[in-house]
Amino acid sequence: MRYRKRISILPGISINLSKSGISTTFGIKGLSVNVGSKGSYLNTGIPGTGLYDRTRISGNSTYYSKPVQNSYYNSGTSAFQPKFIAFGHAESWIKNKTYYTFYFLLLIAGIVIAFFNIPIAISLISLYIIIMIRWVFTDAGKACSELRKARKLWNTTPEGASVSILEHLENSYGHYKNQLLIKDIIFQAKTLKKYEVELKFLSFVSDEDSTTIVELAECNFALEHYADAVKYYDKITLISQSETEKNNIYSKSGIALYHINEYKRAIETLQKVTLAYDQQSLLKLIMGQCFYALKEYETAIFTFTSFVSPNKTFDTNMFEMAYTLGLIYKQTNNNEKALYWLNMVYTRDINYKDTGALIKEIS
Questions:
Q1: Domain span holding position 333
Q2: Distances (CA, A) of 200 to 90, 195, 219, 234, 287
C-alpha cells in the first residue's frame, strides 16, 4: 500500500507526504525542484504532452558517506601515498550534509517564483540570506572556513605540507567530522613527523590492510609505544614485502621487543636481518644487550667484539658496546679486560657515563 499527499502552502511551494518521508517542491508545472532526504531533483517537462524528465542534482553520495577504506593507499607499496581528493570534495560534502544545497535551491525557487509572485520571491530570498549568514557561524560553516584556509595554503606551499595546513585540517575535522579529511591529515602528520596526530587519525582507518598495519607499527615505534608496535609488527604479512622492507620490519620489531624485555624473541627477530656489515651498529648493540640481559656473557662478548675494535672510529653504539664489555668483564672478575675496554671508552670521552669511577674502582 502506498501513501502520497501533496499540500500547497504558498504559490509555487508545496509539501509532499509519503511513506518514504517528506519532501518540498519549488516551482511551477513543467519546471520545478524537489528537495528531500534522498537528495534534490530537477523536474522538467512540457505540460499536456506527456514529455517529462527528472534529474538528480545533489544529495548524499554513498561515495562520500563510506567509512575510510584501503583506497586511501596506493596498492603495491608500503609507503603511505594519499590520492588527495579531500581538498576537492570535503567542503561540498559538508555543505550537502548540512543542506547548504537546499538553501541554494531556495534562491533558485525564489527567482522562478518571481515571475508569478514578487512578494513571495522577496521573502524567500530574504530567508535564504538570513539562513546563509547563520550557517557561516555553525560548526559546518566553521569547518568549511578552515578548509578554505588549508586549501589556500596548500596552493602556495611547494613541499605540500606545513604545520598550518595540518592545524586547519584538524580544526575542520573538529568542527565537523568529515571522513574525507582523514587521509590528508595522516599524510600531513606523517610528513611533519607529528606522530601523535598521525596515530590518532590512523585509528579511524581500517587496520585490515597491510599498509595500514605497517603505518600503525611505525608510528607506535616512533612514539616509543613499543608494546603496541610489536603487536602491529606481528600482524604484518611479509610475503609481499621487499627485502629492504623486511629488514626494516625485522630491525624495528627486534628493537621494540628488546625495550619490552622480550630478549629471546628480540634475538630471533634480529637474526633475520640481512644488512651490510657497516649498517649493523645499532642491531649488534641491541642483540648484544639482549644476550647480556639473559646473562649469556660469552655470546654477548662475541657479538660486541665482532663489531667494535680499537682501530675504528667510535659512534654512539660502539661506545655503548665497549662500555658494556667493560661491565661484563668486571662482573665475571676479569679486571684486566674490564680495564682494557673501559679505558678504550675513557680515552675517547672522559665524561661517558660512570666510566672514570669504574676504572678507579677496579684499579
A1: 294-363
A2: 20, 8, 10, 21, 32
